[in-house]
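hiii so um. not sure if this is the right channel but i have a protein structure encoded as tokens and i wanna go backwards to a sequence. like what aa goes where. can anyone help
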């Protein structure tokens, strides 16, 4: 018996839309990362991008547990001495709410060139509207 390997030309990609309002950040990011990688499909192949497109709306209304708004920190460094910048989750949500979810999903993807390809299929919007109506996205089923 031979092992099945998905070829890039025979992968059927679907578009999913997720409303992030009230959903827990980590659980939402886990589900999105799984769909972007294609692990929910029968044809999943680890070295081929078999995932679907995901549109996230209302990213600014994502739910959090505990005291993460003040306690969770995001670090970035400019590369220069003294160039470390620190922001709390609350500051990130009011400044760039889409980057909070993108950062969480990126951390759950593999650390290779395939991850960059998979992350490009993620479209995040702070408000309830998105410009991808022509792709006929389906509502992603959610279990809580």
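sure thing!! here u go:
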């Amino acid at each position: 018996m031979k092992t099945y390997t998905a070829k890039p030309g025979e992968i059927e990609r679907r578009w999913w839309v997720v409303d992030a309002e009230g959903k827990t950040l980590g659980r939402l990011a886990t589900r999105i990362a799984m769909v972007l990688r294609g692990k929910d499909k029968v044809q999943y192949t680890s070295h081929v991008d078999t995932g679907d497109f995901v549109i996230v709306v209302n990213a600014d209304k994502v739910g959090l547990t505990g005291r993460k708004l003040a306690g969770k920190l995001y670090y970035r460094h400019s590369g220069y001495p003294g160039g470390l910048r620190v922001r709390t989750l609350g500051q990130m949500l009011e400044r760039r709410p889409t980057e909070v979810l993108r950062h969480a999903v990126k951390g759950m993807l593999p650390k290779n060139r395939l991850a960059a390809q998979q992350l490009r299929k993620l479209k995040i919007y702070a408000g309830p509207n998105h410009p991808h109506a022509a792709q006929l996205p389906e509502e992603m089923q959610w279990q809580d």
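oh and The chain has a mean pLDDT of 95.
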